[in-house]
Amino acid sequence: MPLSPVELRHKLHQKPELMFNEFETTKLLEENLSKLNGLKIHKPLETGLVAEYKVNDGPYLLFRADIDALPIKEETGSEFASVNDCMHACGHDVHTSILYGFTEYVTKSKIDKNILFLFQPGEEAGGGAEKVINSGILDNFNITNAFALHVTDEYDKGTIASTSGVLFASAFEIDIDILGKSAHVAFPENGIHSFDALRLFLDEADKALKEQKERVIFGYGKIISGTARNIIPAYSRAECTIRTLSKNRSREFYDRLLEILDDVKKRTGADYKVTEGTLYSEVIVNDELFKRLSKVLSQKHKFIDCGYKMTGEDFGFFSTLYPSMMFWLGTSEGEHYGLHTPKFLPSDGIIEIGINIFKDILQEVK
Fold first, then answer.
1. How far apart are the first and last CA of the chain?
2. What would the pLDDT profile of 297-311 be if each residue is shown by its tens digit?
3. Is the dihedral angle over the CA atoms 43, 48, 52, 53 positive or is it negative?
4. Digit-coded pLDDT (tens) for 29-54
5. 366 pLDDT more than 90
6. Does the structure show a pLDDT above 90 at 211?
7. Intrachain domains 5-164+286-364 and 170-279 with the same fold
8. Whole-angstrom Cα distance, residue 111 to residue 37?
9. Catalytic residues
């Protein structure tokens, strides 16, 4: 017998795996999905999989869940808490269990619609969605619509929140290395202070933000510099992210940052190196789908038009290819820890709610 969705969630949560290292996660999914009738398993990448359900010659619907975890030490005290130093602090264990339970429902009910169930690796800054697309696996199918959800304790348990148009921002990860020259602090004229150059850059970047006419976030959550208290640091590094409402705007602001770095180099003598990470597309909710599904879903669930969020999500790669619908699924039962925190732990009851929402969507779309 295959595991129940809740049993699967507990196993996934206990042994979370980081992006593109979800080997045991993939193995567990394949073992249990293979026990369901009517599925063909495709493995376009080393981790993750696509379960194909085909019953006729018509087009396909795509439902997606992400399977990777984060390098966070869990502090929930749960009976099924992580046994390693990683954690499903973004709820991907819940997403996966919901999609798995939905797959189980479709196969047992013998639904007369073709569906692809994508269990995607590497969402957390890895751009796994883009890698799945680039593998060519989806080119083999006529996909009419794509769907996904994301849990959050920002909203009460069972609440659906989405919007028409941009739901989640474009996210662009960049690392900036400032290269100075080491010297003793007693002889600053012999060195080039890399951290002073980095501070100057960040100050100028803040000024550039204030000049923007549209919403732009430039975040720098991790900064590294220095080796000793009495040595001018020759090297400083800032790990940064750009968030805007479109991929093109992210590129435009990135180009502005390069201009600032050139200016800082001229003023300080410190060189720089920029390493580009994944550039996520904004997540776009199709207007027609939103109008139709919000009306249907609001009949059974609390539905909120939440407007756009500056959250990044690589489902945007799918939403630029297919008319799509993504939504928040609230999990809060009074707690508000937030995503990517060591105490984020939705209850198991949210899994059935998520499955039922996918069922409601499936009844409405062709």
1. 31
2. 999 999 999 999 999
3. positive
4. 999 999 999 999 999 999 999 999 99
5. no
6. yes
7. no
8. 12
9. 66, 124
Per-domain residue ranges for the chain?
5-164+286-364, 170-279
What is the distance between the alpha carbons of residues 159 and 49, in angstroms, rounded to a whole number?
29
pLDDT tier at 169 (50, 70, 90 boundaries)? very high
Q: Which two tokens stand for residue 355?
A: 């499955």
* The domain over range 5-164+286-364 is classified in CATH as 3.40.1190.20: no
For residues 240 and 131, what is the distance between their CA atoms, to the nearest angstrom?
22
| Residue 44 C-alpha from the chain's centroid | 19
pLDDT for the residue 125: 85
So what CATH class is 170-279? alpha beta
Which residue carries 């984020």 as its tokens? 344
| 239 neighbors 222 (Cβ within 8 angstroms) | yes
Q: Residue 280 belongs to what H/E stretch?
A: strand 271-280
Inter-helix orientation angle 349-364/287-297, to 10°: 120
Taking Cα atoms as reference points, which of 320, 5, 263 lies closest to residue 146? 320
Task: Let me know the angle formed at the C-alpha of 58 by 53 and 64, rounded to the nearest 5 degrees.
Answer: 45
pLDDT in tens, 10-23: 999 999 999 999 99
Q: Which of 201, 183, 185, 176 is nearest to 266 (CA)?
A: 201
Q: b/e for 145-159, b at 16 or more Cβ within 10 A?
A: bbbbbbbbbbbebbb
